[in-house]
Design a protein that fits this description.
InterPro entries: Ald_DH/histidinol_DH (IPR016161), Ald_DH_C (IPR016163), Ald_DH_N (IPR016162), Aldehyde_DH_dom (IPR015590). The chain is an alpha/beta fold. The protein has helices at 7-16, 20-36, 38-49, 53-73, 109-122, 136-147, 162-169, 182-195, 217-229, 249-263, 273-288, 320-323, 339-347, 362-371, 406-410, and strands at 80-82, 89-96, 99-103, 126-130, 155-157, 175-179, 198-202, 208-211, 241-245, 292-295, 310-313, 330-336, 354-358, 376-379, 398-399, 412-419. The longest helix has 21 residues, at 53-73.
Length: 426
Amino acid sequence: MCRRGHRGRAAATGWARTPAAQRGAALHAAAAAVREAADELADLTERETGKPYADARGGVDAGIGTLVQYAELGPVHRGRTLHGGWDATDLMIPEPRGVVAVLTPWNDPVAVAAGLIGAALATGNTVVHKPSERCPATGRRFAELVAAHLPPDVLRIVDGDGAVGARLSTADVDVVAHVGSTAAGSQIRRACAVTGAHPILENGGNDPLVVDAGVDPVWAAEQAALGSFANSGQICVSVERIYVHADVAEPFLDALTAQAHDWAERIGPMVDRAQRADVHRQVTGTVAAGARLRTGGELPDGPGAFYPPTVLDGCTADMALFAEETFGPVAPVRVVPDLDTALHEAADDRYGLGATVLTADMGRAQTAWRTLPVGTVKINAVFGGAPGGAAQPRRASGQGFGFGPELLDEMTTVKVVHLEPAPTGP
């Protein structure tokens, strides 16, 4: 793309000069349009990804709230004044970066797109959006609803697979914001190193759950099941590996196995059979390496992409389900002798997205959150948290703030301005 020639670049100057309150009003109108089409978007999500309708509608509602949040935060996003000389003015002013490429995933397509697109638009950037090829209709419909309330070319939509996303990340853009696989994120990092674009990445995770001695094993199993099986395990911050203290291991495993049977009636299919095949390959590889299958782990007969909630124990750190992200409804368990061992092994990983610790001892909780090298640590709840929380994923899990008010900072660049009066005469 020619630096000055493509349409998103051409629209950038006018949108950047649009008053922030006016940009916020456009986002409010877009949120209202999405709210009117919420049932349609939820139905599209269900049909394209297999996500149960209620969960899909929850994702749409979250996206609406996010658009409203950035509509309100954009106009009050501010810079700083500096204390310099009496006769001078010194300012630090946030400015739009320019054109933002937004590459969004299939597992929560509306909520994620609303966050990245909303923050980019609120701060005066133009956007080129490529939704996942696994949910193109959902992604396109959402973006069309938003674009209808914007000037021409401020938000453009492109369709295609990963090859299209790769080309977009090397094009004439100023930011590449991506939520998706670690492999794609690594390619984007390399591309941005060449082009100078600013990367915002939330990529894969291998999030551990640590179960300490002294907790109720039935409650701990409920938490583990929620983290492992919700949305068929297809959440960026799903529980991927479980370390349980030997003192509570057997009742915990019994309760988790029972939970898996209950969750089999509550989850939908995986996004497609290819994803299911990847998960099953990891499960069978882990069993072949010596893990014990407690429940699940078998491909059902017939059409579709359903995979049963699966529990394994006897796992070791080098097994497939512990070494890599699974992204399916699988709960691999490793029994450990103490909390220190669990924390040490949980930290020994190339990812750094999130972690959960279940403990009744707040001193141990303090040690845990300080020890684990991840962006988000949750104590005694696998999901939840105050609105607006934003973390920076680490290592292979990405970089930059992808949520909250801090995302506005990622979408802007700061210019320092020093103003002095000119001499008035000889």
